């Protein structure tokens, strides 16, 4: 383990968050198990007005050994436009600070996701033929490749 600081000793200012360290810290905070994290995704579905929510667990095996898995949550909620989708994957990307509703500060979705896996992909749509995707990749953040959430594509 490296003890080198990601902050220069001669920096005039220090970033509020150091991405590689912050994302690793987020992976260890808040969600003690998969069920708690999945509940966060269900809360988001309910907040979006969903009345039909499906959760799928998709294991990936090599021979009989589990090598990874996907958790998929599908719902019939209102969906997100590209800008909202992009902000939804950012830590603190929310704008609902009143006490109404389930979520407020927009830490739940990205925090729950990174607590359970290395990569979060969210697909959303408001119209049938306009599907958008946004991604948060923990390793890409650690490697300095992903500096933010790119435009939803």
Verbal overview:
With 153 residues, the protein is of the alpha+beta class. The strands form two sheets. The protein has a two-stranded antiparallel sheet with strand order 1-2. The protein has a two-stranded antiparallel sheet with strand order 3-4. The chain starts with 18 loop residues before the first helix and ends in an 11-residue tail after the last helix. The chain has helices spanning 19-27, 34-47, 82-88, 108-116, 138-142, and strands spanning 53-62, 65-75, 119-127, 130-137. The chain contains five helices and four strands. Helices cover 29% and strands 25% of the residues. It is globular and about 55 Å long. The longest helix has 14 residues, at 34-47. Strand 1 and strand 2 (65-75) form a beta hairpin. Helix 2 packs antiparallel against helix 4 (108-116).
Assign a percent range to the helix content. 25-40%
Secondary structural class: alpha+beta
Strand content: 15-25%
Low-confidence stretches: none
Shape: globular
Q: State the distance separating the first and last CA atoms.
A: 36 Å
Main sheet makeup: 2 strands, antiparallel
Mean pLDDT: 85
Number of alpha- plus pi-helical segments: 5
What's the β-strand tally? 4
For the biggest β-sheet, the strand order reads 1-2
* Series of H and E elements: HHEEHHEEH
Radius of gyration: 17 Å
Q: What would a concise description of this structure say?
A:
This protein has 153 residues and is of the alpha+beta class. The protein is built from five helices and four strands; from the N terminus they run ααββααββα. The strands form two sheets. The protein has a two-stranded antiparallel ribbon. The chain has a two-stranded antiparallel sheet with strand order 3-4.
């Amino acid at each position: 383990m490296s003890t080198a600081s990601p902050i220069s000793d001669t920096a005039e200012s220090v970033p509020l968050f150091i991405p590689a360290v912050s994302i690793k810290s987020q992976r260890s905070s808040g969600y003690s198990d998969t069920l708690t994290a999945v509940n966060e995704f269900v809360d988001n579905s309910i907040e979006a007005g969903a009345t039909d929510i499906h959760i799928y667990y998709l294991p990936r095996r090599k021979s009989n050994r589990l090598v990874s898995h996907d958790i998929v949550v599908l719902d019939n909620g209102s969906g997100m436009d590209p800008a909202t989708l992009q902000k939804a994957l950012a830590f603190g990307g929310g704008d609902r600070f009143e006490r109404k509703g389930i979520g407020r500060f927009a830490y739940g979705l990205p925090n729950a996701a990174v607590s359970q896996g290395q990569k979060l992909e969210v697909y959303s749509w408001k119209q049938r033929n306009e599907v958008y995707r946004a991604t948060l990749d923990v390793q890409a953040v650690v490697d300095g490749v992903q500096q933010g959430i790119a435009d939803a594509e």
